[in-house]
Design a protein that fits this description.
Blueprint lengths: L8 E5 L5 E2 L2 E2 L3 H10 L3 E6 L6 H10 L9 E3 H12 L5 E5 L2 H9 L3 E2 L9 E4 L7 H12 L3 E4 L5 E4 L2 E4 L1 H9 L7 E2 L5 H11 L4 E5 L2 H10 L3 E5 L6 H5 L9 E3 L12 E4 L2 E4 L2 E6 L2 E4 L6 H18 L4 H6 L5
Parallel strand pairs: 1-4, 1-13, 4-5, 6-7, 6-8, 8-9, 9-12, 13-14, 14-15
Antiparallel strand pairs: 2-3, 10-11, 16-17, 17-18, 18-19
Helix pairs in contact: 3-7, 5-6
Length: 328
């Protein structure tokens, strides 16, 4: 039985899970195709509001990944749901983000304005890799004048093929420095985005796949959804080692291909934890790796076993984690 066979839908973060900027993560297209062949519903979930779902779907197709617009749910879509609950249709809103953000706001029936002087009732902020500093200032002025503040997502960084870059959270912080209120946020780890995705896909038992503990895994836990953490993006083994309960995934795998493999199970027997061929012994406050993890899968088994002792007993697994050289 594969990990994916336990679920009716697999929801994927994009940056760091499916692609890194303009480059698809190796093997992801084949894995996603196989999941579809097995009847698993696929959803692409992104905190990034810089592009419309149609543009994201086109980008995925360019990377060789099967996708249509209906497969993609971005944080703007969840933000629009929040706006619909609070603002009358046609309300004036000031978008602080890309043209794609403004396009989706117009499509939802709002009147987009460009200045605090136009008396917007809300500021809607989303990630823009080429943000105009003056637009950040205009957003701050409008909020100071009483406009509600909505933000698509809080990500402080974004993974790319060259490394991490500042994300929407850093742009949020610029406005936050100038105002005394906090924004209403739609994206992970807040519930609205994943709730919107489940609603649109009509998923009954989904699993969420992500590379960040502070957005993806925490977000899944916040809506009581099981999760798979992968090592192809922002966070790695030491982040897992130090993760507080709300930030811990229910499964780990190197990449999305882990969904096509048997679920990784760690079993406790006395002072030992066994996962696959790997055996960890709890000795005092530290742990001892009593097997030799050669392959990457064996290293993942060793890590999963060690994490059970770390998370449940506070054991020192630093030596084990340091030895797993194939895991970032």
């Amino acid at each position: 039985m594969t990990l994916a066979s336990q679920y009716d839908a697999a929801l994927f973060d994009l940056d760091g899970v499916v692609y890194l900027g303009p480059i698809a993560i190796p093997g992801v297209a084949d894995s996603l195709h196989e999941l579809r062949e097995q009847g698993v519903r696929i959803g692409f979930v992104t905190n990034n509001a810089a592009r419309t779902p149609a543009t994201v779907a086109d980008h995925l197709v360019e990377l060789g990944i099967e996708a249509v617009e209906a497969d993609v749910v971005n944080s703007t879509m969840a933000t629009l749901h929040m706006l619909a609950d609070e603002l009358p249709e046609g309300s004036k809103v000031l978008p602080v983000g890309t043209g794609a953000l403004a396009e989706q706001l117009v499509g939802a029936g709002y009147t987009v304005v460009a200045s605090k002087d136009d008396l917007p009732v809300a500021v809607v902020q989303g990630y823009d890799p080429q943000i105009d500093w003056g637009l950040l200032e205009e957003g701050a002025f409008a909020i100071q004048a009483g406009a509600d503040w909505f933000v698509t997502n809080p990500d402080m960084t974004r993974p790319t093929d060259r490394g991490l870059v500042p994300g929407c959270g850093t742009q949020l912080a610029v406005i936050q420095a100038c105002v005394t209120v906090s924004p209403k946020i739609a994206g992970k780890p807040y519930p609205p985005l994943l709730e919107e995705t489940v609603r649109r896909l009509d998923a009954k038992r989904p699993i969420f796949v992500g590379d960040r503990l502070d957005t993806d895994i925490l977000g899944a836990n916040n809506v009581a959804m099981e999760s798979l953490f992968v090592f192809t993006g922002a966070h790695g083994k030491r982040d897992l080692m130090d993760a507080e309960p709300g930030y811990r995934p229910t499964a780990i795998g190197y990449d999305v291909a882990a969904l096509l493999e048997p679920a990784r199970v760690a079993q406790r027997a006395g002072n030992f934890v066994v996962c696959g061929s790997q055996r960890i012994r709890l000795g005092g406050h530290a742990v001892v790796l009593e097997s030799t993890p050669v392959t990457r899968d064996q290293q993942l088994d060793a890590l999963w076993a060690a994490l059970q002792l770390r998370w449940n007993h506070g054991a020192d697994i630093d030596g084990v984690v340091e030895s797993l050289q194939d895991l970032p």
